[in-house]
Amino acid sequence: MFQPKIPTMPQPSGLVTPPAVVPPTTITPGTPAPAPAAAPEPSRPVVQLTPGTAVALVGAGTAVVLVVGTVLVSLLLAVAVTSASVAVCAVVLRSLIASDIKRR
């Protein structure tokens, strides 16, 4: 499946003419052409910020900050509620144990 399929060349039919021989031409030296000045390529692509993309980036950044902030605040609230409930349970258990000891 991943091996290339090499096309098979069919056998020529009929008369085959040999390739034409091209006589060599003489090269006359002339003045060398000046080398073109190469423009330096930028090291990284240039990003064009239009007002629309700037607004989109600000909106996306705001959304990310709001979502992350909401998650962190909800986690902090969950820890606070859990610790408050554990503290209430500890007070109730302490009171029950103390009243049990006093009754005996």
Description:
By secondary structure, this protein is mainly α. The chain has one helix and no strands. The radius of gyration is 42 Å and the shape is elongated. The mean pLDDT is 84.
Question: Characteristics of this structure?
Answer:
104 residues; single chain; elongated; 51% helix; mainly alpha; 1 helix
Radius of gyration: 42 Å
Low-confidence stretches: none
Mean pLDDT: 84
- Overall geometry: elongated
Given helix and strand content, the structural type is mainly alpha
Helices and strands, with pairings:
Elements: H1 51-103
Task: Give a brief outline of the structure.
By secondary structure, the protein is mostly helical.
